Amino acid sequence: MVEREVTVQNKTGLHARPAAMFVQKAGKFASTITVIKEEREANAKSIMSVMALGAGQGSKVVIRAEGSDEQQAVDTLVELVESFSE
C-alpha cells in the first residue's frame, strides 16, 4: 500500500471537471485507489464518491493505492491534483 497527502489548490476544489479528470485518470490503473479527507473515504474511480468528499480549495486529502501499480497510481494522481490551478 502506498499513500501520499496532497493539498487541493484549485479554487473550485475537487469538483465537476477536475473530479471527472481525476476519476478518468484513476480508472486507468489496476490498483484499488481511495481518496481520504478527514474521516471520509471515497472510491477514486467513482465521480459521485469523489465529489461527495467536498474537497474544496485548501483541503488536504490522502491518495491511497493498493495493487500492482500502486506507486505509479499515487504519483500520477498527486501530480494531477497539484496541476489543477484554475
Structure description:
It is globular, with a radius of gyration of 11 Å. The chain is built from three helices and four strands. Strands 1-4-2-3 form a four-stranded antiparallel sheet. It has a single domain (2-83), classed as Histidine-containing Protein, Chain: A (2-Layer Sandwich). 36% of the residues lie in helices and 27% in strands. By secondary structure, it is of the alpha+beta class.
Q: What would you say about this model in short?
A:
The protein is an alpha+beta fold and 86 residues long. 36% of the residues lie in helices and 27% in strands.
Count of separate DSSP helical elements: 3
Mean of all residue-level pLDDT scores: 95
End-to-end span in angstroms?
Answer: 31 Å
The low-confidence parts are none
Largest sheet: 4 strands, antiparallel
Total strand segments: 4
Report strand order across the widest sheet.
Answer: 1-4-2-3
CATH topology-level name: Histidine-containing Protein, Chain: A
Oligomeric state of this protein? single chain
Write a concise keyword list for the protein shown above.
single chain, 86 residues, alpha+beta, Histidine-containing Protein, Chain: A, 4-stranded antiparallel sheet, 3 helices, globular
Topology:
Elements: E1 2-7, H1 16-26, E2 32-37, E3 40-43, H2 47-52, E4 60-66, H3 70-83
Antiparallel strand pairs: 1-4, 2-3, 2-4
